[in-house]
Design goal:
single chain, 232 residues, alpha+beta, two-stranded antiparallel sheet, 23% helix
C-alpha cells in the first residue's frame, strides 16, 4: 500500500512578501542542499532571540551546519517556510518524527554534543503512537506574524495525515486499526518557551533543573518534556 503525500497548505505573507512551504527529509539536507546552511543559520538566530536573560545568555543552538545533520534522524520530516522571492532564504521551520522509544525516559545530557535528549526506551504502543516535534523555529525578522502557531498546526496536521494512513494499512503494525489518538512530545527550556506551548494545549510531564553556568545561565534553568494528545 502506497502512502499519499501530505498536502502542503498555502503559506502566509510575511512582512507583506509571499512565502512558500517546502517539505524535505534528512537526505535532502546534504552539504549541497539549497536549504542546509540557511536552515542552520535561521535556527541559531531564532534560538539566540529566544534566550531570556538572565535565564540563558544569548548563545548559538548549533556549532556547525554539520551538527544540524547529526541531530536529524533518517525518518524525520522537515517543513521549511521560505521566501518566494529568494527560495534559499529560510524564515521558519518545524520537524516531525515518530518516536516509539522516547517515553517514559530520563532527561540526560547527550554526550555527543552537550544537548539534552531522552534516552530510555519504552514499549511501543500501536494504539497510541508517539511522535516528536522538533526545531519549531522562526527567524527574528519573521516573528510577530503568528508563524509559530501556524507551523505547529502544520505539524499536527502532517502527523494526523501520516498516522491515519498507517492505521488504514493492514500491513503496517506500527499503528493499530483502533488507534484514536497520537501522543506528541517536545523537549524545551521552560523559561523560554513553556508559556507558548502551555497556551496551546501542551502539558509538562518531566523536568530537569540545569545548574547555574550551563549554557551561560546565571541562575540555571529547567529543561522540560511536554506532551499533547492529538485526536485523529
Amino acid at each position: 500500500m502506497s502512502y499519499s503525500a501530505f498536502p502542503l497548505p498555502d503559506a502566509p505573507l510575511v512582512n507583506g512578501r509571499p512565502t512558500k512551504l517546502v517539505q524535505v527529509n534528512r537526505a535532502d539536507l546534504d552539504t549541497s542542499s539549497l536549504y542546509l546552511v540557511p536552515f542552520a543559520d535561521m535556527v541559531n538566530l531564532s534560538f539566540e532571540a529566544g534566550c531570556r536573560q538572565p535565564v540563558m545568555a544569548p548563545t548559538q543552538r548549533l556549532t556547525s551546519h554539520e551538527q544540524l545533520l547529526h541531530e536529524l534522524e533518517p525518518g524525520i520530516t522537515i517543513f521549511l517556510l521560505v521566501s518566494r522571492d529568494d527560495p534559499g532564504k529560510v524564515l521558519a521551520s518545524v520537524c516531525t518524527e515518530p518516536c516509539p522509544s522516547y517515553l517514559p525516559g530520563t532527561i540526560a545530557p547527550d554526550p555527543r554534543d552537550g544537548h539534552v535528549w531522552i534516552p530510555d526506551p519504552a514499549p511501543h504502543n500501536a494504539r497510541e503512537p508517539r511522535w516528536t516535534i522538533k526545531l519549531l523555529c522562526v527567524s527574528p525578522e519573521a516573528q510577530k506574524h503568528g508563524l509559530g502557531t501556524w507551523l505547529m498546526q502544520v505539524a499536527e496536521d502532517a502527523v494526523r495525515h501520516s498516522v491515519r494512513q498507517q492505521r488504514a494499512n493492514p500491513e503496517d503494525d506500527q499503528v493499530a486499526e483502533d488507534c484514536e489518538s497520537v501522543r506528541l512530545v517536545i523537549v524545551m527550556v521552560r523559561e523560554n518557551n513553556g508559556v507558548f506551548y502551555g497556551n496551546r494545549g501542551w502539558t509538562e510531564i518531566q523536568e530537569r533543573p540545569m545548574k547555574p553556568g550551563f549554557l551561560g545561565s546565571e541562575g540555571g534553568f529547567t529543561i522540560v518534556v511536554m506532551d499533547k494528545m492529538l485526536r485523529l
